[in-house]
Specification:
Layout: H1 7-22, E1 33-35, E2 41-43, H2 45-53, H3 57-66, E3 74-80, E4 84-89, H4 91-104, E5 118-122, H5 137-153, E6 156-160, H6 169-179, H7 192-212, H8 214-228, H9 232-255, H10 275-285, E7 289-291, E8 294-297, E9 312-315, H11 323-336, E10 342-345, H12 352-365, E11 373-376, E12 382-383, H13 400-418, H14 424-444, E13 452-453, H15 456-459, H16 467-483, H17 499-509, H18 511-520, H19 524-544, H20 553-576
Parallel strand pairs: 5-6, 5-10, 10-11, 12-13
Antiparallel strand pairs: 1-2, 2-4, 3-4, 7-8, 8-9
Length: 585
């Protein structure tokens, strides 16, 4: 791999050198470089340096300019306003940098992180024996995109799907199955839809019996004790529920075009044996104390009604354990056994207080510290077009499968309307890619912490900030490259560039910087915004700069080269977000 320094970094380095040559005390100062409408970049750091050295900003800026060598990298630099520097990059540098990126192959010249660590991403957390609904969408989509971006930067990511596979409801389900054998077929004999149908039937029947028959309710409660104590027969039936649920989970995640690895499904049950030790360690360290028979952790700055402290309950007075114990045990496992340097939780924002207390408890225990950090990526709610929580007409939570099926159906209408030379099989394949891509992009183009409206009409629109717009831009480029026939894309740094070519080239070159920034901030919406702007700049380039009918063969080849680099960047960026880019649409 041959990493390529971005034009932004190259200009930054030259400016920093000129600054330190002008004022030795400015060594290491940030030129505060940013993209500008008046030039390619604007440097604003002169003002801060002038204030620090008590110099006239414009005079200092002029002195810095005199120390900047123009030529292969910087074509022109001028003083603007109170002491800004407007910088124009040379056409040759833009084309040359993109050529170096193309030569690097799949990574497009983007380097790997030097200080890469191990990040455990906790995301996509369905519940055993329950249907996945719209509330499960964001955790899965955001978590998958974060893994894509982090992996690309060189971070090692490990997925953890902390599924709900433990607790009191399983006593009810298992007792019912014991008394009604044969209600669940082996997981190997059913598909996802059958699995969920079977689970739903058993759950509803057991719930009716639990609510109406006190004797059954008592037997179910005793079955919970048997489950927690490791009774062989009880565990075998519990495993049936888990296995059948996994068949269903995999079918839904397959529709969502996400890879879920079996070894990364580590539910609440996996931490059952370690919870007593977690409680013991916390009590011995004095992090947790006994209060009214329960083992709890108190926090000075977390108070509830009547200004009373809100504790984190590690162990209940009856000896049972809850979410706090399993989450703290999971932290121990991820830090000690998986050697994680970062723990990333993609969990509903409504659980923020819980994780704030869990993380603080882990810090007090020393499991989290300066070398091992934890972050809760609290995400907002999926809303209906009316701005209210997304529900069916009957007020029920929308099934995730139904949502995805409708998106694909709606996308099929769009693809069929535009299709010219696609077969029905190809239309169905593209519809799945476009529909699922539309759902994912609508989510990822919104800041995770914000709510967003689920509006399929807008999501599958060919206009505006949608994945369909990006996918069609990619397909358009592939069409041009096919029409070029034997004319191959090739870079010609000696050519002058049209302003639309310059704008597109500079933006393509910023791909690596954008991915690193988005990954560092856990902000997939920043990568989505970059890709939308890339498609928009390509549209402007396409409108203003003839490609196959350019003036000279060299210009044709160079514009094909720009098309090729744009397409490679689009498909790489969309791929990091978990969205496919069809070659034809």
């Amino acid at each position: 791999m041959a990493s390529v320094t971005s034009l932004t970094d190259s200009v930054q380095q030259q400016l920093a050198s000129a600054l330190s040559a002008t004022r030795p005390e400015a060594a290491g100062a940030d030129p505060l470089l940013r993209r500008s409408d008046r030039a390619d970049f604007q440097a604003n750091g002169i003002l801060a340096l002038a204030k620090k050295t008590k110099a006239n900003p414009r005079e200092l800026a002029a002195e810095v300019v005199s120390r900047i060598t123009t030529g292969d990298l910087i074509e022109d630099v001028e003083v603007s306003g109170p002491g800004f520097l407007n910088i124009t990059v040379a056409d040759r540098a833009i084309t040359g940098n993109l050529a170096a990126r193309l030569a690097d192959g799949e990574r497009l010249g983007v380097p790997l992180k030097e200080d890469a660590g191990v990040t455990v991403v906790d995301y996509a957390q369905p519940n055993v024996a329950k249907e996945m609904h719209v509330g499960h969408l964001r955790s899965a989509v955001i978590g998958d995109a974060l893994r894509g971006m982090l992996d690309f930067t060189g971070e090692k990511t490990i997925g953890r799907h902390h599924i709900g596979d433990w607790g009191t409801q399983f006593g009810m389900l298992i007792q019912y199955l014991l008394e009604h054998p044969g209600e669940l077929a082996p997981a190997s004999e059913v598909d996802g839809e059958q699995a969920m149908s079977n689970l739903n039937r058993v759950y509803k029947a057991s719930r009716v019996l639990f609510d109406s028959d006190d004797d059954f309710k008592e037997r179910a409660r005793k079955r919970v004790v048997a489950l927690q104590s490791g009774d062989k027969e009880t565990l075998e039936l519990w495993q049936q529920f888990v296995d059948e649920s996994k068949v269903y989970f995999y079918s839904v995640f397959e529709k969502l075009d996400m890879e879920i690895r079996d070894e990364e499904i580590v539910g609440e049950s996996a931490y059952n044996e370690g919870m007593p030790e977690t409680a013991r360690l916390l009590e011995e360290m004095g992090v947790a104390v006994r209060s009214e028979g329960a083992l709890v952790v108190f926090f000075d700055d977390i108070r509830g009604k009547d200004d009373q402290p809100v504790p984190l309950i590690v162990q209940k007075a009856d000896g049972g354990f809850g979410y706090a114990a399993s989450d703290l045990t999971a932290i121990r496992n991820r830090v000690v056994d998986l050697h994680a340097t970062t723990l990333l939780y993609v969990v509903d924002v409504r659980q923020s207080l819980h994780f704030r207390m869990v993380f603080e408890t882990a810090r007090r225990a020393g499991w989290l510290n300066d070398d091992v950090t934890a972050h809760n990526m609290g995400y907002g709610t999926v809303l209906g077009a009316d701005g209210k929580p997304f529900k069916t007409r009957e007020g029920e939570t929308v099934r995730l499968e139904d949502l995805l099926d409708e998106a694909v159906q709606r996308a099929a209408e769009v693809v069929r309307e535009k299709a010219r030379d696609l077969t029905e099989d190809e239309i169905r394949e593209r519809a799945a890619q476009v529909g699922i891509g539309a759902v994912k992009y609508a989510d990822l183009s919104t800041s995770p912490s914000r709510d967003y409206k689920f509006d399929l009409d807008q999501m599958v629109s060919l206009n505006g900030d949608t994945s369909v717009y990006l996918q069609y831009a990619y397909a358009r480029i592939q069409s041009i490259l096919r029409k070029a026939g034997d004319v191959r894309p090739s870079a010609h740094p000696e050519l002058d560039l049209h302003p639309a070519e310059r704008a597109l080239g500079l933006h393509v070159d910023a791909f690596g910087d954008t991915v690193f920034e988005a990954a560092a901030e856990y902000a997939p919406h920043k990568l989505a915004a970059y890709l939308y702007q890339l498609a928009s700049l390509y549209t402007s380039f396409y409108d203003k700069c003839p490609v196959l009918k350019a003036d000279t063969p060299e210009q044709v080849a160079n514009r094909l080269f720009l098309c090729d680099m744009t397409a490679r960047t689009l498909t790489k960026g969309m791929g990091l977000l978990g969205i496919r880019t069809p070659e034809r649409l």
